[in-house]
Amino acid sequence: MIENRPYLAFMSHLVLIFGVAIVALPIWITFVAATHDEIRMLRAPIPMLPGGYFWENLKETLFGSGLESLQRVSVWRMLLNSLAMAMMISIGKIAISLISAFAIVYFKFPFRMGFFWMIFVTLMLPVEVRILPTFEVVASLGMLNSYWGLSVPLIASATATFMFRQVFLTIPDEMLESARIDGAGPLRFFWDILIPLSRTNIAALFVILFIYGWNQYLWPLLITTDDDMTTIVMSIKHMLEAAEVSPQWNIIMMTALLAMMPPVLVVVAMQKLFVQGLTETDK
Amino acid sequence: MLKRVHFPSSPLPYLLVAPQILITLVFFIWPASRAMYQSFLVEDSFGQSTEFVWLENFSYLLQNDLYLATFGRTMLFSAAVAILSMSFAVILAGFADRVIRGATLYRTLLIWPYAVAPVLAGALWVFMFNPTLGIFPYILEFVDYDWNHYLNGNQAMLLVILAAAWKQVAYNFLFYLAAMQSIPRSLIEAAAIDGAGPIYRFRTLIFPLISPTTFFLLVINAIYAFFDTFGIVHAITQGGPAGSTTILVYKVFNDGFIGLDLGSSAAQSVILMFLVIVMTVIQFRYVEKRVEY
Question: Searching chain B, which residue's CA lies closest to the CA of residue A263?
């Protein structure tokens, strides 16, 4: 506290509450829309206070037929696909970044810097700028409509490799010296010393990558043509299109809520790790 | 770079970098070179023959009014998203920095839109502004303002900007708050003792001290607006009406996958790649060093 200005303190809270309200407004409206029945959601103005149909809508979305004009796959299946993709991307990224950072920091071998720059280049090539040729590669490898196709092309990561490199560089050299005196080989050292020492970094990175993986949109849109491989995030787009024919906004908004719930819960529940991950990777 | 104490050379390090390098080669470097190569080709309308045309695709693009308009529109879009979300975030962070009780609670309540997928953010905003049902067109009707982003290009652009900025507020807020909290309290106290009021202190002390963060966030927001907003545009307007919300990333997708104009799409990808490289270099060269005063 610098100085005592009760009015300013009051003002601060007022502005912050106002800010929170603006930020939360779209979600509030979504939530309210998911708690009314179909008929009510067709009459303007749409309600601003929750109605009593939350559980019915949830049951309808999860176990019922879902959107009438769009009987493709169950919401369960789409949530499962999203979870599989997010987990494969985040675990894959962490695993291959860990071992390549280990190789680059702890081994002296020819072309070490060459490999390092090759990994660095991936930073400059987001999916969005190389979609068409990457799509062709995935198609020619026969990975369309598969979990492999959804996740593997997104797995290479310069940021994660840099971060682990940074973490490894701060680990004192004496660790390795004593480990070697005790007769530990490289893999033993990696598994028993490096991994436990970078546990929080791994967790922080996992939070960020899980969100990244879950929220992928353009890539799954391109490489999945089979309805069984649809992710929940993708399905929203189909639903918005279907809304022009049969506007079941209650079901659409309930699906949207389900789609954003897992990453939002991860952020809120693991806020400390999330903030750490965000500032460490700077992206 | 390398540890002073390290393991001797053996086949092991090659095995360790192999997965990452393999994926980089197959899914990054090879497609990027393909894009580079394709950008020099023109395919006839039936896909029968291709012709090597050097830089014709690029010169065509750079003289094409439609492409230049898209370029300008993307710049405007990124600037608007960055300014809107950063100024909103800096104001909130400034007040949150003052609050003693509940700062963490406010932070929790402000950061979660980061986790919402762009396409979902688009869906939420398009629902709020739905011309027949949405709450905002309903309110705007009272002041006799007709909202229909399916017909009015400026309104569509505004809606896309709002949705994109909304999603990015969380990130900007987090970094601004961290920057403000890392300013030594003694500095601010000294200014307060000298009689500087809160607004004067913010203007002459806090804001200059967080300028490295502002610069860093400008770059990050530009990258975000350029590349991560595909889902928002796709959900809200699909580039319309009449191309008024088509940004560069959307155009690459549209020309390549919908229009099947491979040469032009590849040339656009190459231009985008060049832009990413420039932004990444700026980020690394200047942001790492931080701004000096």
Answer: B115
Instruction: List the 193-252 stretch of A: residues with Cβ below 8 A of B.
Output: 211, 214-215, 217-218, 222, 233-234, 236-237, 240, 247, 249, 252
Assigned domain for B16 exists? no
Residues of A in contact with B95 (CB under 8 A): 11-12, 15-16, 19
Instruction: Tell me the residue type at A209.
Output: L
d(CA B215, CA B221): 10
Would you call B213 exposed, middle or buried from its count of C-beta atoms within 10 A (0-12, 13-18, 19+)? buried
DSSP state of B129: T
Distances (CA, A) of A72 to A236, A251, B120: 13, 14, 20
Q: Coil, helix or strand for B246? A: coil
A125 vs A148: CA distance, rounded Å:
20
Say whether pLDDT at B145 is over 90. Answer: no
Q: How many helices (H) and strands (E) does chain A have?
A: 15, 0
Q: Give the pLDDT of residue A229.
A: 84
Residue A26 and residue B7: Cβ atoms within 8 Å? no
CA-based nearest distance A46→chain B, Å: 6
- The domain in which residue B260 lies consists of 62-289
Segment among A56-60, B11-15, B106-110 with least mean pLDDT: A56-60
Q: How many domains does chain B have?
A: 1
Distance separating alpha carbons of residues A35 and A170, to the nearest angstrom? 51
Q: Going by C-beta distance under 8 Å and a sequence separation of 6 or more, which residues neighbour residue B134? A: A44, A46, B127, B128, B147
Task: Kindly report the nearest CA distance between residue B293 and chain A, in angstroms.
Answer: 23
DSSP calls for A236-277 = HHHHHHHTTTS--HHHHHHHHHHHHHHHHHHHHHTHHHHHHH
B117/A253 CB distance under 8 A: no
Q: Compute the Cα dihedral for A124, A127, A129, A130 and give only its sign.
A: positive
For residue A15 the two structure tokens come to: 């502005």
B-facing residues of A in 141-200 (CB < 8 A) are: 141, 152-153, 155-156, 161, 168-169, 173, 176-177, 180, 186-187
**Token pair for B42:** 């023109």
> CA B17 to CA A102: how far, in whole Å?
9
pLDDT, one tens digit per residue, over B166-177 is: 999 999 999 998
Whole-number pLDDT of residue B81 = 95
CATH number of the CATH domain containing B249: 1.10.3720.10
Rounded Cα gap, residues A59 and A53, in angstroms: 10
Please, what are the domains in chain A?
A: 6-75+225-281 (no CATH), 82-212 (1.10.3720.10)
Is A131 in the B-facing interface, judged by CB distances under 8 Å?
yes
Is B130 within a domain? yes
Q: Please answer yes or no on whether B227 and A129 come within 8 Å at the CB atom.
A: yes
**What integer is the mean pLDDT of A239-260?**
82
At residue B293 the predicted structure's pLDDT band, cuts being 50, 70 and 90, is very low
Q: Which two three-digit tokens encode residue A279?
A: 């500032």
* Residue B48 pLDDT grade (very low, low, confident, very high; cuts 50, 70, 90): low
Residue B122 covered by a domain: yes
